[in-house]
Amino acid sequence: MTFTEAMEWTSRAFEVAAIVVLVVGFGTGVVKALRARFGAREEESYAILRRYFGRSILLGLEILVAADLIRTVAVDQTWENVLSLGLIVLIRTFLSFSLEVEMDGVWPWRRGALRKSAGKPAPPAAPEDTGSV
Q1: From first to last of its 133 residues, what are the pLDDT tens digits of the chain?
Q2: pTM to 2 decimals?
Q3: Of 10, 55, 67, 70, which sits 20 to 30 A from 38 (CA to CA)?
Q4: Is-contact 52 98, C-beta < 8 A?
């Protein structure tokens, strides 16, 4: 097996992994949503399914970008493929950004301010060095 063939198979393995992430994420979301629907949190079932499936879509997109990157860099090194990869990465980045904003309801750079206003504690700071031994 040549290096190019190995990278082609690796790229395909990443694509399969992305599909598995999507299917498992959707399945997990459906199960959790059904539990909520028939449990005490009936009104949250849609939000739960949306959150689980949305996160699996984000992860699946990232894995697909890795597959495209492997294929372009290691298998087909042409300017056409590099430009195609750039366009794919731009589109998938826009999709990922849009999905995150849609799911969280806030711009990514506003998450910290939102946590502060909600009264959630900030991450713990590093301990200070007192200089004593």
Answers
A1: 888 888 889 999 999 999 999 999 999 999 999 988 888 777 788 888 888 898 899 899 889 988 988 888 877 777 887 888 888 888 888 888 888 887 777 777 777 776 677 666 555 544 444 444 4
A2: 0.69
A3: 55
A4: no
